[in-house]
């Protein structure tokens, strides 16, 4: 084999390794970027005998559209509620002194799981039917629960954070 052939073979080998390495690094950066935009779990805990998981800025795919939403999962006994605030959602901004006007947020979707049965309710409500009246009542109660739980989450996060700050202040004295 001539010297030129050996050089070409060496370049081929290293070029393949370099391309593979770049592809792996690019994939890792892409995955990290996607995970970063998946939203933030703001709260996970118990409020009034309900297991609550609350996320803000979560991406969801609805049809062909990629939307951001605030999502809350509430489990009470055998029933699980999923609340989705997709349009004009407001974050609770628990670190800010002024409370944002998130209490006026309205849910666009409510899912209720009763063990093996799952019901979906969408905001498109027609009050002129029994189903529409039922759906309106579900949304009224869900919006109330969603707002109340977010208020409690905000208060609890602020209280826990202030305790943490006081603890740090005490260690400095």
Describe this structure in words.
The chain has helices spanning 3-36, 130-172, and strands spanning 40-47, 50-62, 65-76, 79-85, 109-114, 117-122. The chain has 173 residues and is α+β, with helices and mostly antiparallel strands. A six-stranded antiparallel β-sheet has the order 1-2-3-4-5-6, covered by helices on one side.
Q: Output the radius of gyration.
A: 25 Å
Portion in beta strands = 25-35%
Q: What is the average of the pLDDT values? A: 82
Q: How is the biggest beta sheet arranged?
A: 6 strands, antiparallel
Instruction: Show unreliable segments.
Output: none
Number of strands: 6
Summarize the structure.
By secondary structure, this protein is an alpha+beta fold.
Topology:
Blueprint: H1 3-36, E1 40-47, E2 50-62, E3 65-76, E4 79-85, E5 109-114, E6 117-122, H2 130-172
Antiparallel strand pairs: 1-2, 2-3, 3-4, 4-5, 5-6
Essential attributes:
6 strands; about 170 residues; flat; about 30% strand; about 45% helix; alpha+beta
